[in-house]
Design brief:
Strand content: 15-25%
Strand order of the largest sheet: 22-21-18-19-20-23-25-24
CATH architecture of the domain at 3-153: 3-Layer(aba) Sandwich
Helix content: 25-40%
Distance between the termini: 43 Å
Largest sheet: 8 strands, antiparallel
CATH superfamily of the domain at 3-153: Gcn5-related N-acetyltransferase (GNAT)
Shape: elongated
Number of strands: 25
């Protein structure tokens, strides 16, 4: 662990010697080093004039030096040198991030770096952008006098980032299964077994966690990898708190996933743990609001606050808002509530006879569970509407009009609107704070396989401008209605685009979601790496083989290094599912460009495929 402090005038000569030792480490000849000596020398007056900082070991030894020169709009990273004996220990990373932090503090908007060619990989991995970068995975050539120019944009963070947790670190409670279980919807039963794995997303419930509470044990090294890439200070990890047989609050019983207690109840049943979390004096952030979490946090869940988690209730809200005439690009699909399977069958049969495609939904499905898109042909080939409905859980059904995408039709070319026509599934993310104010995180493009959510991408330019404006306006309007209904917390609104300029809102989620996790990661990466990041969450990357802890950790580190070489960031978000009979990972990848983002995503998929193929070959 190093300490960053300001340089002292009295140590100027010692710092100059460290810089020259660091430069010589790369094998430059004496003549070249002598030519550099004057430019690299640090004088006593430079320590303040050039804003020089040093990295110091616990024993007081100076391990590295950096400078932040110029401003106010644009500054230069004039020096960043690490003692040869300290290379690979995170010293350069700590100095670099301190320079970025201080630059933001001073209002500097852009940082310029003329890097030694041997440092190109470091600056790429840290998020700096090469001004003549040939692309992901391609070596950068010298561009001017043997130096390679990089730059870092330092935009102001979005307002929602500070508002979410008051700008403070937070305690993250991974209560995914606990949230789902309160709705008593049979469509949720098949997905509950995975809910404890998805609780690992608790690492990203805010940009800066102070503590994580997880229902199942996390693999060794996972949190350390995340902390290194996201520059988190020490994060307290409390995992395995809701394994089967763990103590529970008698008033709540066991959770629905895996036979263990609900996470909030399990924490309450351990007074020392509950006391420790409260002693941190920080906000407690859950996946979603529940009665049990209300007891843990001391903020009871108001009656009816979650009613718009119901797809039927959110549909009524959408109809009310669209009926005002203020949202001309919003077209709410027709929906009918069928209390019995027979009633749903009659509605489905009527639509099939008219040649129409229909969406069948359970009221509280998660991630596409309990949802089925049915064509008229499928109804005929399955033996009729009743036979088709046997594929869905028992209970009430929502029968909904299918929104056809323009590209599904033969005349797609004449009806699509450029890039907007290629987008099908989108989402709006925001939250209602404790005072009832609505904050907007933004819009994202979702990846949907069939009817199942498979991932999302957030970042600048991801959502086409033709649909982004109306989507954001409608999302804000929904947020205002949720606030008026007493809801407090994160929410999203999912949409289907028809490709011709209309957006159909399909549901709200009154909790955190996969896209919200991507927004949190993007906010933190923007802060510690500069620029505006594109972030993609990949919900399920099949592994094809179960790995012991040590091998899984090694595999994650390999992916981390591979993505860094592409100028991208790899963040394993759901590691515990790697131990399932059908093992998978949930991951985040991030980059400054779409090309680097796509390259990193493809690298992750390919390495996972090769892992499975290796075991198949044996």
């Amino acid at each position: 662990m190093v300490r960053i402090r300001g340089a002292r005038a009295a140590e100027a000569e010692a710092l100059s010697a460290l810089v020259m030792r660091s430069k010589a480490h790369w094998g430059y000849d004496p003549a070249f080093l002598a030519a550099c000596a004057g430019e690299l020398r640090i004088r006593a007056e430079d320590t303040e004039a050039r804003r020089i900082t040093v990295a110091e070991a616990p024993d007081g030894a100076v391990l590295g030096v950096a400078s932040l020169e110029g401003g106010p709009a644009e500054a230069v990273l004039g020096l960043l040198f690490v003692a040869p004996e300290a290379l690979g220990r995170g010293v350069g990373r700590a100095l670099y991030r301190e320079v970025l932090r201080r630059a933001r503090e001073l209002g500097i908007e852009r940082l310029v770096i003329d890097a030694d060619p041997h440092a190109v990989g470091f600056y790429r991995a840290m998020g700096a952008v090469c001004e003549k970068d040939p692309g992901p995975g391609v070596p950068v050539a010298d561009t001017s006098g043997g130096l390679v120019r990089f730059s870092v944009e330092l935009p102001r963070p979005a307002d929602w980032v500070a508002a979410w947790t008051g700008g403070r670190p937070a305690v993250h409670v991974g209560n995914v299964a606990e949230f789902n279980a309160q709705f008593r919807d049979s469509s949720l039963d098949p997905v509950q077994s995975a809910a404890h794995h998805y609780a690992c997303l608790a690492a990203f419930y805010s940009p800066l966690p102070a503590a994580l509470v997880l229902p199942r044990p996390a693999p060794p090294g996972w949190l350390e990898l995340l902390a290194r890439r996201l520059d988190w200070p020490a994060v307290e990890l409390y995992d395995g708190v809701a394994v089967p047989g763990a103590g529970a609050d008698p008033g709540t019983g066991a959770g629905a996933a895996g036979g263990g207690p609900e996470v909030s109840a399990a924490v309450l049943a351990r007074p020392a743990l509950a006391g420790r979390l409260h002693a941190l004096g920080l906000p407690l952030v859950p996946w979603g609001q529940t009665e049990a979490f209300g007891r843990l946090s001391g903020r009871p869940l108001p009656a009816g606050a979650l009613r718009h988690e119901s797809k039927a209730a959110s549909h009524r809200l959408f109809c009310d808002l669209a009926g005002t005439g203020r949202h001309p690009q919003i077209a709410v699909p027709a929906q009918w509530y069928a209390r019995t399977r027979g009633a749903a069958a009659r509605l489905l049969a009527r639509r099939a006879r008219a040649g129409l495609t229909t969406v069948l939904k359970s009221e509280h499905g998660v991630g596409g569970s309990g949802t089925l898109v049915v064509t008229a042909r499928q109804v005929r080939e399955s033996g009729g509407a009743r036979a088709m409905l046997r594929r869905l859980p028992r209970g009430p059904q929502l029968v909904e009009e299918y929104v056809e995408h323009a590209e599904d039709a033969e005349d797609a070319a004449s009806r699509t609107d450029g890039a907007a026509g290629t987008v099908r599934d989108l989402t709006y993310d925001g939250f209602v704070d404790g005072e009832g104010r609505v904050w907007e995180a933004g819009a994202a493009v979702m990846e949907v396989a069939g009817t199942g959510y498979a991932g999302a991408t957030v970042g600048p330019g991801v959502v086409p401008p033709a649909v982004e404006g109306p989507l954001l306006r409608f999302g804000r309007a929904v947020g205002a209605e949720l606030a008026a209904a007493g809801y407090r917390g994160w929410f999203d609104v999912d949409f289907v685009a028809d490709g011709a300029g209309l957006l159909a809102p399909t549901e709200t989620n009154l909790r955190l979601t996969g896209p919200s996790i991507a927004f949190m990661a993007a906010a933190r990466l923007d802060e510690v790496r500069g620029g505006r990041h594109l972030v993609r969450i990949m919900d399920r990357v099949e592994l094809g083989a179960r790995l012991p802890d040590a091998q899984l950790t090694g595999f994650l580190r390999d992916l981390d290094r591979g993505c860094a070489e592409l100028g991208a960031v790899f963040l394993p978000a759901i590691p515990t599912a790697a131990f399932e009979p059908a093992p998978f990972l949930g991951v985040l990848v991030a980059a400054h460009t779409a090309a680097a983002l796509d390259a990193a995503a493809e690298l992750v998929r390919e390495e996972a495929r090769l892992l499975g193929a290796m075991f198949e070959a044996e």
